[in-house]
Design brief:
The chain has 440 residues and is of the alpha+beta class. Helix 1 packs parallel to helix 5. The chain is rod-shaped and about 205 Å long. It has eight helices and 16 strands. About 14% of the residues have low confidence. A hairpin with a 2-residue loop joins strand 3 and strand 4.
Length: 440
C-alpha cells in the first residue's frame, strides 16, 4: 500500500541499516561490537589490498633500486678497504726504510767505534816508542798545542754517552746498545723518559766520535814533534861525523849476537792500505819519524861518537900529515894522540866485535873493534889489554890501559877510526858526539 506509514518502533542499540527498493523494505541492525570490528577490519583490508597491488606493480623497480644501493655500498666499502690497505702498506714501507736506515747508521757507528778503538791502540803503541823525556821537552815550549785535551764525557740524552781516557776510548762509553738516558733500561725507554728521537741520538753519537777523532789527530801531531826533533838531532850528528847512516841502520837491525843489543822483529810483509784521511796521513808521518828515530837510535851504540878517555881530552897530535917524531920526515898520521897517565883505562867508543887484541908493529899493543857497516876503531900503544879476539864489547867497555908500546915517545893513546879500511879524522866523530849529547 503506497503511502502507508510504518508503525513506530523503539530504537535498538547498534548500527541500523535500512534497505529499500520500490516496495522492498528491510532493516538490518548490526550490534555495536560487530560494527566496531567492521570499521577496523575493512580499512585494514583495503589498505592491505592497496599495498599488495602496489608491491606487485612496483616490485621490479624496488628490487633494482635495492640491488643498486647494495652494490654502491659494497663498492664504497671495497674502495675504503683498498685505501686503508694502501695506507698500511705505505706506513709499513716507510717503517722498513726507516729501520734499514737506522740499522745502517748503527752499523756505520759500530764500524767507527771499532776504528777509533784500533786507532787508540796504535796511538798507545806509538806513544810507548817516544821517549817520555823527549815528549816532555817538546811540550814545554808549546804546552798549549801538545797538551792532550780534557777527556770528553757527553751526557745523555741530548749528547752521546761517550767517555774517553786520554787517547783510548772506554769500550762501554762507545757501546751503541747503551745509547739511552741514564737511569732507564734498554727495554723501558718512553717518550717521557727520553724526549729525543733515535736519529738525534745517532747524530749526537756521531758528533762525539768526530770529537774523539779530532783529539786522536791532535795527539798524533803532538807525538810527531818530539819524534821528528829526536830523529833530526840524530841525523845531524851522523851527518856531522860523516857516518854511513843507511848502512849503520841496517847493521843495527840485524839479530842479536853475543850480547850486542838489537830489536827482535819480523813477519811477512803485508803492505798497509793506502788511505787519504787526516788520521792516516798524520799516522804515516809520525810512523816515519819514529821509524827513523828508532833506526838511528839503534845504530847509535855502533857509532864511535864517544870519547876513548874520560874528561877533557889533551890532544898531542892531530889527524893528517905531520913530521914523523922518529925520522923527522913528513908522514901521514892516521889517528889522534891523546895524552894520558900511564895505566889509565881506555874505553870502547862504540859496541862491536874485537877483531885484534895484541902486538901490532908500530901500534904496540893494539885493540881493533869492528862496529859493522864498514866501521872500525883502533886503540894503540896500550900497556895492558883486557879483551881478546872475537869478544863482543859494549860502548864504554874497558879495553886496556894507556902505555907507551910500539913507536911511542911517551904514555899516550893512539886512537883511529876507519871506514871501509881507510882512516878518517876521529875528531869529527868526537865533535858529533858532543853535539848530540848537548842536544839530548
Amino acid at each position: 500500500m503506497r503511502g502507508a506509514a510504518f508503525p513506530a518502533q523503539a530504537p535498538r542499540p547498534g548500527l541500523t541499516l535500512h534497505l529499500a527498493y520500490r516496495d522492498f523494505r528491510r532493516e538490518i541492525v548490526i550490534p555495536p561490537a560487530l560494527a566496531a570490528g567492521l570499521f577496523c577490519v575493512v580499512p585494514a583490508i583495503l589498505l592491505a589490498c592497496l599495498g599488495v597491488g602496489s608491491y606487485l606493480t612496483f616490485r621490479d623497480d624496488m628490487l633494482a633500486s635495492l640491488m643498486h644501493r647494495q652494490a654502491s655500498m659494497q663498492f664504497a666499502y671495497e674502495d675504503r678497504i683498498a685505501a686503508l690497505r694502501s695506507q698500511i702498506d705505505s706506513i709499513a714501507s716507510r717503517q722498513m726504510v726507516n729501520q734499514d736506515s737506522f740499522e745502517g747508521k748503527m752499523a756505520e757507528l759500530a764500524v767507527r767505534q771499532a776504528r777509533l778503538e784500533s786507532r787508540s791502540a796504535l796511538l798507545a803503541a806509538l806513544a810507548a816508542r817516544v821517549d817520555p823525556q823527549d815528549l816532555a821537552a817538546s811540550r814545554r815550549p808549546a804546552a798549549a798545542e801538545a797538551a792532550a785535551p780534557a777527556p770528553v764525557t757527553v751526557p745523555a740524552p741530548q749528547k752521546p754517552a761517550v767517555a774517553t781516557d786520554n787517547f783510548k776510548p772506554a769500550p762501554e762509553g762507545f757501546d751503541l746498545r747503551r745509547a739511552q738516558p741514564s737511569g732507564s733500561s734498554g727495554d723501558d725507554v718512553s717518550e717521557n723518559s727520553d724526549p729525543t728521537t733515535p736519529d738525534q741520538r745517532l747524530r749526537a753519537l756521531a758528533a762525539g766520535f768526530d770529537r774523539i777523532e779530532q783529539r786522536q789527530i791532535a795527539a798524533l801531531n803532538g807525538l810527531r814533534a818530539p819524534a821528528a826533533a829526536k830523529a833530526e838531532r840524530l841525523r845531524e850528528a851522523f851527518a856531522e861525523a860523516g857516518l854511513p847512516v843507511d848502512r849503520m841502520v841496517q847493521q843495527a837491525a840485524l839479530p842479536e849476537k853475543d850480547g850486542v843489543t838489537s830489536v827482535p822483529m819480523g813477519g811477512p810483509y803485508v803492505p798497509a792500505p793506502e788511505r787519504g784521511g787526516d788520521f792516516e796521513r798524520a799516522y804515516a808521518s809520525l810512523d816515519r819519524s819514529i821509524a827513523t828515530m828508532d833506526g838511528l837510535r839503534r845504530a847509535l851504540p855502533f857509532a864511535p861518537l864517544r870519547q876513548p878517555l874520560p874528561g877533557l881530552l889533551d890532544v898531542t897530535s892531530t889527524f893528517g900529515y905531520r913530521t914523523d917524531p922518529f925520522l923527522g920526515k913528513p908522514a901521514l898520521h892516521t889517528g889522534i894522540d891523546f895524552r894520558g897517565e900511564y895505566g889509565e883505562p881506555v874505553h870502547a867508543t862504540a859496541a862491536g866485535r874485537v877483531i885484534a887484541a895484541g902486538p901490532a908493529g908500530g901500534y904496540g899493543n893494539m885493540v881493533e873493534i869492528d862496529h859493522g857497516a864498514g866501521l872500525t876503531t883502533r886503540y894503540g900503544h896500550l900497556s895492558r889489554i883486557f879483551v881478546e879476539d872475537g869478544q863482543w864489547v859494549k860502548a864504554g867497555s874497558e879495553l886496556g890501559a894507556i902505555g907507551s908500546t910500539g913507536r911511542s915517545t911517551g904514555p899516550h893513546l893512539h886512537y883511529e877510526v876507519r871506514v871501509d879500511g881507510a882512516p878518517v879524522d876521529p875528531s869529527r866523530y868526537i865533535k858529533a858526539g858532543k853535539l848530540l849529547n848537548a842536544g839530548l
